[in-house]
Amino acid sequence: MFPIRDHNPRGGFPVVTLCLIGLNVTIYFASLPITAEPAAYAAFLHDYALFPNRVSDGRGLLGLVSSMFVHGGFMHLAGNMLFLWIFGDNLEDSFGRIKFAAFYLLSGIGAGLIHVVAAPASGVPTVGASGAIAGVLGGYLLQFPRAKVDVLLIFVVFFRVFTVPAWVMLGLWFALQLLNGSASSAEEGGVAYWAHAGGFVVGFLLTLPYFLAKGGPGYWGATKGKPPHPEADYRFVKSQIPRVRRR
Questions:
Q1: Which domains does the chain have, with CATH numbers?
Q2: CA distance 212 to 167
């Protein structure tokens, strides 16, 4: 189950969101030739990935930032950029470009630090924008809990698009990170579930002052948890092309 779009149209051109997507995509394809050479790729990860054991020793702090722009595969990149595109533009509208850029970086750094706390002795390199994007999800949930999100459900050969409130989709996503994080070992590598969950909480907390300044629960009361503007309508329009029947 993953989102394909929300019904929350943006108010302005998402410059920062598109720049972040462009930077991630550019770095991925620029580094792609290196992945075919194990020694070169190991050196690349040594310089730009996040290593929890180094941060625990006070070294490799640059990795908290650089690792946000490195991905371990095309599907890893595509999934992260899809989430950023769907949810990032609305937070950029709310915060403004400079504040959103700072919010994104702080969420990613916070997610990385929580991953370090969860696995302080791990020497497994960690890469990906997931922690920063999890922060975007946390901020989105606080501001637009009842915004409509279209999710594609795939179950074996069953495909269907459902429209659900953001709090359902994002709440399930967060619960899965907690569940998987509790069932796996952060020391052994794999998916950094605690970074995801931590980034979500960091993004939620960073958005909290902004939310309270807008009226807090009173803001929810005024908007009913929905975007403060008309939602997008994706209903199909009946075609004007006449049908031709076979004889």
A1: 2-223 (1.20.1540.10)
A2: 19
